[in-house]
Design brief:
This protein is α/β, with parallel strands linked by helices. The protein has two domains: 267 residues, Glycogen Phosphorylase B (Rossmann fold); 183 residues, Rossmann fold (3-Layer(aba) Sandwich). Helices cover 37% and strands 20% of the residues. The protein has a nine-stranded mixed β-sheet with strand order 3-4-5-2-1-6-7-11-12, sandwiched between helices. A six-stranded parallel β-sheet has the order 15-14-13-16-17-18, with helices on both faces. Helix 5 links the parallel strand 6 and strand 7. Helix 5 crosses helix 6, helix 10 crosses helix 13 and helix 11 packs across helix 17. The radius of gyration is 23 Å and the shape is globular. The N and C termini lie close together (9 Å). Bound molecules: adenosine-5'-diphosphate. The site of adenosine-5'-diphosphate has 17 residues, from helix 1, strand 13, strand 14 and helix 13.
Length: 483
């Protein structure tokens, strides 16, 4: 552990595994506090009091009342839950709802999402200002647009200049937009509604607020940090980021190597007992109704959206199937993509499950040979990291964190001592993906080579250690502390 006192940090997140999860943000928010402990950081996590969170609280106690919290009364609870040290914004008028945490029954955003997460961010700034009698953070670490207003409220509060702030961008595609007419209901100063401030093409952007008012910005891979500065990836905010490039850095995500451990995972046949993947693969084939095959069993675990490039896989699929490969896909999202994959499942070598199923995702990683991640953009990506850990070789687009985490098979990385851990393709087109799938089949047909790549992949460090140290160092830099 680095020297000096423990740094108190308030993490502000709209989801955190294992309590509530829709994507990679939850994995990061859930894993970081534990990983940071060894680096002298005491992190508490402020979460919305969704029903799933409230139900999981251990020994909650009220530590603050917030009589007027964006349309109703609220309380801040202190509790343990899901292995985390939590502060929970118990605001039934905002968070006690069925359906999704962001989406209502019809699949559309909850209309008051701007207020719901503004409330979370506002309470974070209040906590920084001393709302809770016995604990005050030195630094607020906000995540994505849902925490984006926290640095803004902080800068406008009594804690300004006393408590520092970091904003992490997990995905710049989600910008937290609201009509300008909501300035009042969001407790924003109309004087800040300018192009240099909260205004984004006539609307309010909570993410942009964070990009401007946070002391430091991070994103989840060094490569995405570079990409974000370009119009092709910055999604309209690249200019704002270029202006703050000196405060922006990329810190790679890790994964929880205890949850994702092929030797001890209770959801699979552990590799030692199973002599590697064999038993898991047979079980996975049976589960997806796939026959024995000569080629690799490729898997996909993903949200089905344009970002993930899975429309390209529909087009490129023949390149895999013609060479005796197979596909098992788990995902949900865009109805058109769901239908396209359901139609593709008519092929005997293709199995598809539409839905979200954490346990099945473990069985797929244990049984698959390769995991396909053909994303058009990917801030970090987690499933390729799970793939490395389970020796399920990642086949990834050369973008974002995918480029930072996979050593691509090439004449250089296969010559002499094999160092490759997967396959990469570029540009992100169906043709290039098809060619990559051809390369995967050719590599798989050379068992010695494939096994060497599996060994490399499984030995590749994918845990949080390195990145937790980088976050801790960043906090110390901001607070002006030496290590
Ligand atoms: P994103 O956050 O953009 O969705 P990431 O790769 O960073 O992408 O994280 C996705 C997380 O969600 C991973 O933990 C992945 O295993 C999980 N996931 C995505 N879709 C499913 C699904 N249908 N069933 C189970 N887990 C899923």
């Amino acid at each position: 552990m680095a020297g000096g006192a423990v740094i108190a940090v308030l993490s502000v997140a709209s989801e955190a595994a294992p309590l509530v999860k829709t994507g990679g943000l939850a994995d990061v928010a859930g894993a970081l506090p534990g990983a940071l402990r060894a680096h002298g950081v005491g992190m508490r996590t402020l979460l919305p009091g969704y029903p799933a969170v409230m139900a999981a609280l251990e020994a909650p106690r009220i530590c603050a009342e917030v009589p007027s919290c964006f349309g109703g009364p609220a309380r801040v609870l202190r509790a343990r839950g899901g292995g985390l040290d939590l502060l929970v914004l118990d605001a039934p008028h905002l968070f006690t709802r069925g359906a999704g945490i962001y989406l209502g029954e019809t699949g559309a955003d909850w209309p008051d999402n701007p207020e719901r997460f503004a409330a979370l961010s506002w309470v974070a700034a209040e906590i920084a200002g001393g709302l809770i009698p016995d604990w005050r953070p030195a630094l607020v670490h906000a995540h994505d647009w849902q925490g984006g207003l926290a640095p803004y409220y902080l800068a406008r509060s009594t804690a300004a200049g006393k408590v520092a702030s970091v904003l992490t961008i997990h995905n710049i595609a989600f910008q937290g937009l609201a009509p300008a007419s909501r300035l009042g209901s969001l407790r924003l100063d109309p004087a800040d509604f300018t192009p240099e401030g909260l205004e984004y093409w006539g609307q309010i952007s909570a993410l942009k607020a964070g990009l401007i008012w946070a002391d430091r910005l991070t994103t989840v891979s060094p490569n995405y940090a570079e990409e974000l500065l370009s119009p092709a990836f910055g999604m309209g905010l690249d200019g704002v980021l270029r202006a703050r490039r000196g405060q922006l850095s990329g810190i790679l995500n890790g994964i929880d190597t205890q949850v994702w451990d092929p030797e001890t995972d209770p959801l699979i046949t552990p590799y030692k007992a199973a002599k590697g993947k064999a038993a898991n693969k047979a079980a996975l084939r049976a589960e997806f109704g796939l026959p024995e095959a000569e080629g690799p069993l490729c898997i996909v675990i993903s949200r089905l959206t344009a970002q993930k490039g899975l429309d390209l896989l529909i087009e490129a699929l023949p390149a895999l199937l013609e060479r005796g490969g197979q596909l098992a896909l788990l995902g949900s999202g865009d109805p058109g993509l769901e239908q396209a994959f359901q139609a593709a499942a008519a092929h005997p070598q293709v199995g598809v499950r539409i839905g979200y199923d954490e346990a099945l995702s473990h069985r797929m990683l244990a049984g698959g040979d390769a995991i396909l991640v053909p994303s058009r953009f990917e801030p970090c990506g987690l499933t390729q990291l799970y793939g490395l850990r389970y020796g399920t070789l990642p086949v990834v687009a050369l973008t974002g964190g995918l480029a930072d985490t996979v050593i691509p098979a090439s004449p250089a990385t296969l010559a002499g001592k094999v160092v490759a851990t997967g396959v990469q393709f570029s540009p992100v087109t169906a043709a290039a993906l098809g060619a990559a799938l051809g390369r995967v089949c050719a590599l798989y047909a050379q068992p010695k080579l494939w096994r060497a790549m599996m060994r490399n992949a499984m030995a590749h460090p994918v845990g949080w250690d390195h990145s937790a140290a980088a976050y801790a160092q960043l906090y110390r830099d901001i607070l002006g502390e030496s290590t």
